[in-house]
Amino acid sequence: MTDRLDAEAIAEGVLPALRPLLRRVRVLAQVDSTNSELQRLPAPERHAHVLLADRQIRGRGRRQRNWHSPAGGNIYMSLGWRFRNSQAPLSTLPLVVAVCACQALARAGLNNHGIKWPNDILTDGAKLAGILVEMQSLGNGHSTAVIGIGLNVHMPVREGEDPQQHIDRAWTDLRSHLPAGGMPVSRNQLAVYLLDQLLAAMDRFEHSGFDTFTAAWEKFDLLKGNPVVLDLDEGTVTGIARGINDDGELMVAIEDGRVCSFHSGEVRVFHEQASTVN
Ligand code: BTN
């Protein structure tokens, strides 16, 4: 049996210097999607509002995918954030969130994880966490973001059921990668680690942009220098990943030597297990 999510313990666990940034932490036993639930609130109420659920009935992923969200072992968390005249292109926000998730996981003791652009968190080629950032423009240069993170901590497996039936790519959970298959870090503690990173990052991002995250991005970037296949709506591109540009787009050196940048698409890495063919 894994630990119970506890809103008070999470709010109190956040670093004292960051706690004033947080307005509300809520835990629900179940919801359709924590991102959808935050989006149903009026925009001013979303800011600095954290919502976790033990189970999501219609957990949503990027590119209209589902996010398998059974009860009892994982983290499904959304944070609302308002940006006022951000200095940074908000297109880089999903990448910042991926860096935050990786840093939180490192704090939890994981050391072989990284990011597959734009923001899949993988370990040993299998997906450990996913990020769904949904933006809404409020006019006058103001926007709100709902930042959703799904982290497989200890994937509940019902008898006779294989989670892979619900997940269209190779997946893993944190428990399988920490020493001796143990789980020394509780879900509440992991939520705290995620929030510590996110709260510190939001302020920095709004004022200084993506530049201050570049070094961390490069540390966790699993693609740079690797041969990749990029599935686009209009076809497939192959080449060598060359990192990202200032807008967070993936740069790929294609066969004729040109370097092209892409703002969306699904990347397959040649060494990724059970590659993400749709
Ligand atoms: C992806 O990799 O496709 C993104 C997955 C994002 C899942 C999280 S779980 C919390 C939040 N609520 C949702 O419905 N989705 C995000």
Which key terms come to mind for this protein?
278 residues, 7-stranded mixed beta sheet, 5-stranded antiparallel beta sheet, 6 helices, globular, binds biotin
How are the secondary structure elements laid out?
Layout: H1 7-13, E1 24-31, H2 34-39, H3 43-46, E2 49-56, E3 75-84, H4 93-107, E4 113-116, E5 120-123, E6 126-139, E7 142-151, H5 187-208, H6 214-220, E8 227-232, E9 235-244, E10 250-254, E11 259-262, E12 266-269
Parallel strand pairs: 1-2
Antiparallel strand pairs: 2-3, 3-7, 4-5, 5-6, 6-7, 8-9, 8-12, 9-10, 10-11
Residues 33-35, 56, 59-62, 65, 67, 76-78, 120, 130-132, 148-150 line the site of biotin.
The mean pLDDT is 91
Read across the widest sheet, the strand sequence of neighbours is: 1-2-3-7-6-5-4
Helix share of residues?
10-25%
- Ligands bound, unique: biotin
How does this model look, in words?
The protein is 22% helix and 31% strand. The chain has 6 helices and 12 strands. Strand 6 (126-139) and strand 7 (142-151) form a beta hairpin. The longest helix is centred in the C-terminal third of the chain and has 22 residues, at 187-208. The two termini are 34 Å apart. Residues 272-278 have low confidence and may be disordered. The site of biotin has 20 residues, from helix 2, strand 3, strand 6 and strand 7.
Describe, in short, the structure shown.
By secondary structure, the chain is of the alpha+beta class.
